[in-house]
């Protein structure tokens, strides 16, 4: 499979697959977009080792980043225009209401690091994009942080696959270790996001 992906990396199709997966996983968080990005980067590293040329990992990062921002924007706009039904659904959940208030405060204060953290946390990207829309936050407050979050996530994912393949070889072991590192970052981001409200209350 890695050999096949290595071949696809040299064609536009791998970028289309990555873009579509990253774009849609804001609506379907179960899509393994991070796994696909890592596997593509691993295959790209395998191609460079075999041919002696540097793979176009920058194009992979740009593709994943752009798709991430476009997906965030689509979810944001959908929630922005969601109307009373979506507002009522959030109002019924104390956790979502609290998260919406925290996100609004963070964006207003320029503390959009929460958006970056959420990009790594499981389903965090979906929650943040939708809540930013339902709270009617300004796009100019949200999108720059969304772009930074998408770039950070894409660069980290590609780096895991690329350097993992160089250090461990273009094998399933390298891919597995890289995916585990991505999930570890997600677990760490989720932990930090949970701890922040407790810290704020303690103060």
TrEMBL record:
Residues 45-162 form the VTT domain. The chain crosses the membrane at residues 12-45, 57-79, 142-164, 170-193. It is found in: Cell membrane. It is a multi-pass membrane protein. Keywords: Cell membrane, Membrane, Transmembrane, Transmembrane helix. Belongs to the DedA family. PANTHER family: INNER MEMBRANE PROTEIN DEDA-RELATED, TRANSMEMBRANE PROTEIN. This is VTT domain-containing protein. It comes from Streptomyces doebereineriae.
């Amino acid at each position: 499979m890695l050999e096949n992906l290595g071949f696809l990396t040299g064609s536009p199709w791998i970028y289309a697959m990555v873009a579509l997966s990253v774009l849609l996983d804001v609506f379907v968080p179960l899509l393994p977009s991070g796994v696909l990005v890592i596997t593509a980067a691993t295959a790209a590293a395998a191609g460079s080792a075999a041919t002696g040329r540097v793979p176009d990992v920058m194009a992979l990062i740009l593709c994943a980043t752009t798709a991430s921002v476009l997906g965030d924007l689509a979810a944001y706009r959908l929630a922005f225009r969601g109307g009373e039904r979506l507002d009522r659904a959030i109002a019924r959940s104390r956790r979502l209401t609290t998260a919406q208030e925290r996100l609004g405060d963070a964006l207003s204060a320029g503390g959009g690091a929460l958006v970056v953290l959420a990009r790594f946390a499981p389903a965090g990207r979906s929650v943040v994009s939708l809540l930013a829309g339902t709270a009617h936050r300004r796009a100019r407050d949200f999108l720059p942080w969304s772009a930074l979050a998408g770039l950070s996530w894409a660069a980290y994912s590609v780096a895991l696959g690329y350097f993992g393949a160089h250090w461990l070889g273009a094998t399933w072991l390298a891919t597995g270790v890289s995916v585990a590192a991505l999930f570890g970052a997600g677990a760490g981001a989720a932990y930090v996001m949970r701890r922040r409200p407790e810290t704020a209350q303690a103060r």
